[in-house]
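mind reviewing both lines:
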Amino acid sequence: MMSQYLSHAFKPMDDIYGLPLLTIPLRHDRHVVHARQRARDLAASLGFEHQDQIRLATAASELARNAFRYAEGGTVDFSVRNSSPQVFMISVTDKGRGISNLNEILDGRYISKTGLGMGLIGTKRLMDHFHIASSPEGTHVEFGKVLPPTAARVTPSSIKAISTKLAGGNPADPFGEIERQNQELLRTLAVLKEKQEQLADLNQELEDTNRGVVALYAELEQHADDLRRVSDLKTSFLSNLSHEFRTPLNSILSLSRLLLGRMDGELTVEQEKQITFIQHSAGELSELVNDLLDLAKVEAGKIDVKPRYFEVSDFFGALRGMLKPLLAGNSLDLIFETTPDIPTLYTDEGKISQVLRNLISNALKFTRKGHIRVTAETKSGGWVVFRVADTGIGIKVEDQGRIFEEFVQIEGELQNQVKGTGLGLPLSRRLTELLGGSLEVESQPGLGSTFTVQIPAYFGKAISEPPAIPVLDENNKKAIVLFIEDNRETSFVHQSALKNSDYQALSVANIPGARAAMKQTKPALVVLDRLIDQKDSLFFIDELRSQGYLGPVLVVSVIDDPKGAMSAGAAGFLAKPVPPFTLLNVVRELIEGKASKTILLVDDDEVTRYLVGGALARGGYRVLEAHGGREAMRLIQAEFPDAIILDIAMPDMNGFEVLREIRSIESSKALPVIVHSSKQLSVVERKSLSDAKVLIYPKQAFSREGGSHGLLQLLEGIGTGL
């Protein structure tokens, strides 16, 4: 039977070291109240603070109630453990049937429907000392708290004084105890309020810490700038080194041409041969320097991709002109072909030209007869494929991978006649990969080679299909606002903001979609998210201007950088998240070219601000929000609103206090104010509002049908109508 009960090694107080204070028998339910009162009174006499008095009294009351309810009686003993430090101990003993599932209760695994066990768990958490033993013969619970360091040490003489003091009271009055508990509850609530204020101070400290973190980020950004400058110095060094090499090489080449041109007299056969060797060597060295510099820049990430729009047909025409001198005295045919469905490309034209020039030059070197065909065609997924096919000597299968290694030259029948650096093909592959593409080769000895360059038609993203453009209602004559936003939820909020307004929203998810939309529509305003697909999209403003769009562009972004947006050509900037009525106000101002009248809405209730602010925005007003009186005063002096809609009941400053401060400022004495509150105003309050020349529009009136229209009419009546 005993195995069903907790076999805690309970160690009772050694009577030699215990200083007994009081024993209360539990024979009636009023004795439970008596135990609570005595626990609190003793704790107070021993020097415990108010909160600890309540904890000890509550624990004693809860365990005494358990003993009386479930064991039908018992005793509560109060004593002081004469240790160092001393401990105020309370023992509750009963002769009930014990607690069979004590382990389960103490571990928190027992779910009680009657409250059984909750007192044990709470006491264990609140006390410094806790022991329990339970068997079929009864349960003994002993708990206590260490006396405060400031309390006097308890002695037999001080115990006698405490006993005398307690004997003069009447602890058995339950109604008095309830009143006292209520007072304790009020004091506890006051302490909680103080804790909340401390929490507010802590939040302010956290805000200050956040500012420090922002400063740290700024410092890190400065370090990043320093690293970029170091990298730029490296690039500058490479450029200067290249210049130092190129200058004497160009001089050698120029002098060689002068000598071979007999500018200073005839040359012997041997002299001409020597000068020709010098010229060829200088040319090869110059080519090597150029390729080395380009490779170094690619590896260091210092070659910038400069995408722009261009047509393949124009590109092939320019390429043909550049390569024409290489065909002089050559019987090869150089053919350029393109399919009619090639789209306008958006990539780095110069780098594609450099790649194809390298490939065509190689083809010319290793092709004796026949032709070189350069083609361009589209591929599904938004890719464009360039091919350079020749009828030359071809490349063995085992050598096709090696030709893309630096300084590798394949031995062959024409190799001795054709000199090269071995860097052209590795550089071409690196440049192609830089553009997001690939360079591959197919070849058979004696049958020629085909080099295939595959790149995205739009740099930075392969487009699987043409961007979908929402269908607009042709009968809707409202001005179009084009939203470029890749977040679905944000796009929905933006479109909802324009519902029931004078504008219709057209939303696309990316820049290609925006280009397609601009071809089909003429928006009155473009709203551009700064980060599209994790890339800065401010470049699109320049593109819009180059395409002839003269309308305003509004930039919205999580990056709070209005200066950067305005420098890029934006007409306005809003930081996300953007309240719907704020967005509507700014859209209206940018399209119509005039500022709306400003209403300051002062209310601590977020729902009210949302509803009233939305109604005002739809009515054509610019809305400023303040969630309290202090914020309202700051906005009044900073923004100079045309009117104020003011709540009365607010936590920091009530509406009357705000009104007094408004009227005390010379510049806002005549500022129109509408009190918008659900508070039942007294006759005196109405009189004071009337004296301050304030109108009243209750929240109950706004909630009725047509309430928002009534508010707009009231604004118009005080001279702030649109």
